[in-house]
Structure formats: structure tokens, C-alpha cells
Design goal:
Blueprint: E1 10-14, H1 19-34, E2 43-48, H2 54-68, H3 77-81, E3 84-88, H4 97-104, E4 116-120, H5 127-136, E5 144-148, H6 156-167, E6 175-177, H7 185-195, E7 209-217, H8 226-251, H9 260-272, E8 282-288, E9 290-292, E10 295-297, H10 300-304, E11 313-319, E12 329-335, E13 342-349, E14 368-374, E15 378-386, E16 397-405, H11 406-409, H12 418-428, H13 437-457, E17 462-465, H14 472-479
Parallel strand pairs: 1-2, 1-4, 2-3, 4-5, 5-6, 7-12, 8-17
Antiparallel strand pairs: 7-13, 8-11, 9-10, 11-12, 13-14, 14-15, 15-16
Helix pairs in contact: 1-2, 1-12, 6-13, 8-9, 8-13, 9-13
């Protein structure tokens, strides 16, 4: 039987001196504390291999906050820093876990009154030893929940192995698999847009929607992720998690309520309905030297220092084979060293069945809904309107955008880091925005099938120049259907 949810009064951060902690986790927690959203009693214990005192860790955290958190969000920083403490630990061995448990305190034990939330941001190879160490130290009781940062495997088999290891110590209702895209305001707003407005849901189906495009474009190259990325590639790094989660939110049926079980039940139905992708429905690419923002950048092979068949670009034509979406293509595109950093969803509606203005020479464009996720959060609906004027040559129509810029629509609201929402929900025990095991495995099953098609066909990435939108065959992927990518 699942334990009742208890808000955590301890948060244990593994990998507390790493890049993710410095850039995202500590700034997010400080901002939440400044807004009065963290429990007053919450204590935050950091752990990593580095030897340092509590004060050393606080000093490191202060430097991170001053670097990565805007000035206006640092209110009460001293109050937050006083919540921090540190315990050095080599997670690869059992030695040290008892000392970590002492540092965490009795609230994590079965006889404690509070709860413990654990955020695990370590290499996947350490997941097993870390879980074993937590079990050894009594840090896996009913009032303990664990958040897992990706990557969760490299295929279905390795993902199942990781999930099995975690399940040895934690029941599914206490496992919080993190996809930070689900913490973004506009991603959550997609649910509000669909299910809080009668305008959209009646037409959110194949009768009215012609196709959907999902683009996740990056301008950066390998940066500090050389070893990880060459073993991963764009398919595993972006498509398997972020893009399939976005697709599931666009395509899911209305859940019965906004709770973890109902929302995730509907997402997994979409993922299981994804049709197997054929060889001619995918394009892979790898960037070469070019220019981004007017500055010369090296090619992938130059950054890596060797030849590689790892893809840095993927385009896919996907289908959701169910009643709602039969015949509607979902075009997915992601890549590195593309012209701009953007994540967006384009929903293109069908043309009106009959134009009464055609005899007057008025051109028509289908309505489009553009949902911008990053770098700007906005929603734009394009519709047709008459061009003002009293000419005698008939009615002229023009596409007009109706734009809602989310920061402008909600004046006085902070632009939050995606991890703020996820950390708050991990501490509070709400799983709605976290990924369930059956979702992860459905995603891997689909992705593994595509990679098997590539292997069977001997598919190798086509080269593309940095600063362009990928190989020319990615354009052909949509244009043979009469569709143009939204650039």
C-alpha cells in the first residue's frame, strides 16, 4: 500500500557541487525560499565527492547564486544559505552512507515525523551503488521519495535495469523521474490552453488539424558534454524524452482530473499509439564548420577530435494511430548548431472547406497556433482578416497574428526556472509533472525501433553546415507532403 504523502523537511542533493546544482538547483531553491514557498523547517543537505565544510558549501552556493540568479530574486539569500549543510561521500561504496544518514537526521527514518526528498544527479553507473548505500543507511523508508535526473538508460534494456534497481528500494509512488521541460510554464500552459478553453478542444482532432510540428533547436555544439553526447546523440538526448513528452501533451485525451494518475494515464496511451517509423520517415545529420551569429564555429568531428557516426540532428515524421489523430502527421525536428535557439509547437489547422472570397482573388491561409516555449514564452494564433480599404478590385485578405506574450499577460510574475516547479513538487510529493515508468519504457520502445531501422538500412548522418536548418533532406521530408517547416 502506498504511504500517505508527507511534505519533506529534508532535501538531500546528490551531485551538489556539480554544474546542474550550481546553475539550476541551488538558484531554484533560493528563489523558492525568497518567495516563501519552501517549508520553513526544510533543511538542505548537499553531498558529493569533494571534501568541504558546511561553510565551504555555503560559500560555493553563494557564488553560484550571485552568478546564476537575477538580483531581484536573491531576497533573503542569507536565510536560504543557513538552510544548507554538506557531507562528503563517495557514492560508489557503502562507506560513508552511515555518516550521511547522521547528517540528514532522524526525519528520514521510519520513526521520524517528517519526510526526506532525495535529488539524484549522478552518473547512471552510480544509481545502483547509491540506492544500495541509501538502503544500507536506512534512507529508503516510507517517508522518503527520490527524484532521478536523466539520462535513465541508453535503450529500453538499460532503462529497465535502472528502474528495477530503483524499484528495489522505492515504490513507484515515491519515484520522481525528471524531465525539466515539464517544469516550463508554457509547457504546463499547453494543458490550460487545451482543457480550460472551449474554443480549442472541440477542434483539436484530425477533422480540423492538418499537421503538427515540434521543433527543439540549439545553437550550441558539444560544449562540456563531449563524452556523454557522442554516446547518446540527438535521438536519445532530445527525442526520447523532451520531444515525446511535448508530443504526448499535444495529443493526449482530456484527463478526468488534473492529478498525477489521470494525466499520466492519458500520456502513456499516446506513446503506446505511436506508429512504427519507416526508413523514409526519418532524417539524420551531423554538423560541420560554419557560422552561428556571425562567428565561425568548428564542425562536430573537429570538436570531437575524431570521426563519428553520432547524429546531431534528427527529423521524424510520426503518426499517432488512434481515433483523434488518424492521418495527422507530427513532424519532429531537433539539432545542434542550428540558426537559432528555439523550442516551439506549431499546430496547423485545415483550410476552410469553401472560400467565398476566391472569386475576388483573395488568397487564403490556414489558421495556425504557434506555442513558443523557449527562449520566449508566447502563444500566437494567426487568422485571416480583411485588409482595410475601399478599393474596387475586390476584397483583400491578410494573415493577422493574435499574440499573447506570457510575461506581459501576467505583470508582476517572475519568470521562473523550470526546476523551481519540479523541486517544489518533489518536496511536496506531487507526481503530476514527473514521468512514470511505463511512459519511459514506451518512449524507449519507440526510439529503439527507429534506431533498429537505421541500423538495418545502414543509415549514416548527412552533413550540414552549422548555422543552417539541417540537411536538405529534412526539408524534403515535409515538402513531399506539401508542408514547410516553420523557421
Amino acid at each position: 500500500m502506498a504511504a500517505s504523502v508527507i511534505s519533506a523537511d529534508r532535501l538531500l542533493l546528490f551531485g551538489a557541487t556539480g554544474d546542474l546544482a550550481r546553475r539550476m538547483l541551488l538558484p531554484s531553491l533560493c528563489a523558492l525560499d525568497a518567495d516563501g514557498l519552501l517549508p520553513e523547517s526544510l533543511q538542505i543537505i548537499g553531498t558529493a565527492r569533494s571534501e568541504m565544510s558546511d561553510q565551504d558549501f555555503r560559500n560555493m552556493a553563494r557564488e553560484a547564486l550571485e552568478t546564476f540568479l537575477p538580483d531581484q530574486r536573491r531576497g533573503g539569500m542569507a536565510h536560504f544559505l543557513n538552510k544548507l549543510s554538506y557531507q562528503a561521500l563517495d557514492a560508489s561504496t557503502l562507506e560513508g552512507f552511515d555518516a550521511l544518514a547522521e547528517k540528514v537526521g532522524p526525519s528520514a527514518r521510519d520513526d521520524g515525523e517528517g519526510g526526506l526528498a532525495i535529488f539524484l544527479s549522478t552518473a547512471p553507473s552510480l544509481f545502483g551503488p547509491t540506492i544500495a548505500g541509501l538502503q544500507h543507511a536506512g534512507l529508503t523508508g516510507d517517508h522518503v521519495r527520490i527524484g532521478l535526473e536523466k539520462p535513465l538508460g541508453t535503450d529500453l534494456e538499460s532503462s529497465c535495469a535502472i528502474n528495477d534497481a530503483v524499484a528495489e528500494a522505492f515504490s513507484e509512488d515515491r519515484i520522481f523521474r525528471i524531465d525539466h521541460y515539464l517544469g516550463k510554464e508554457t509547457v504546463q500552459n499547453l494543458l490550460a490552453l487545451r482543457f480550460a478553453n472551449i474554443l480549442f478542444e472541440p477542434i483539436w482532432n484530425s477533422n480540423y488539424i492538418e499537421h503538427v510540428q515540434i521543433t527543439v533547436a540549439e545553437t550550441v555544439g558539444l560544449e562540456s558534454r563531449v563524452a556523454y553526447y557522442d554516446d547518446s546523440g540527438a535521438m536519445r538526448d532530445m527525442v526520447q524524452n523532451h520531444m515525446l513528452q511535448l508530443l504526448a501533451l499535444v495529443a493526449m485525451e482530456p484527463p478526468t482530473s488534473f492529478d498525477a494518475t489521470a494525466v499520466r494515464d492519458e500520456k502513456v496511451k499516446v506513446l503506446r499509439a505511436l506508429r512504427k517509423v519507416e526508413a523514409n520517415e526519418t532524417v539524420t545529420g551531423q554538423y560541420r564548420a560554419g557560422a552561428i551569429g556571425g562567428e565561425a564555429v568548428p564542425g562536430y568531428d573537429e570538436e570531437l577530435g575524431k570521426d563519428s557516426t553520432t547524429e546531431t540532428f534528427v527529423a521524424i515524421k510520426a503518426h499517432v494511430d488512434n481515433w483523434r489523430w488518424k492521418g495527422v502527421p507530427f513532424y519532429l525536428r531537433t539539432g545542434k548548431r542550428l540558426p537559432e535557439r528555439v523550442t516551439e509547437i506549431l499546430v496547423q489547422f485545415r483550410c476552410v472547406p469553401h472560400s467565398i472570397f476566391e472569386s475576388m482573388g483573395a488568397g487564403m491561409q490556414p489558421n495556425k497556433l504557434l506555442i513558443g516555449i523557449q527562449p520566449e514564452e508566447n502563444i500566437t494564433l494567426s487568422f485571416m482578416a480583411k485588409v482595410p480599404g475601399l478599393g474596387t478590385d475586390g476584397v483583400k485578405l491578410r494573415e493577422v497574428p493574435l499574440e499573447i506574450t506570457m510575461p506581459d499577460a501576467f505583470v508582476g510574475q517572475h519568470r521562473r526556472i523550470a526546476y523551481e516547479r519540479l523541486l517544489l513538487d518533489l518536496i511536496g510529493g506531487d507526481q503530476t509533472l514527473f514521468v512514470r515508468r511505463d511512459e519511459v519504457e514506451a518512449q524507449w520502445q519507440w526510439v529503439d525501433a527507429i534506431r533498429a531501422v537505421w541500423e538495418e538500412a545502414g543509415t549514416k548522418p548527412k552533413t550540414y553546415t552549422s548555422g543552417t536548418w539541417g540537411p536538405s533532406s529534412a526539408i524534403a521530408l515535409t515538402e513531399r507532403d506539401g508542408v514547410t517547416w516553420h523557421d
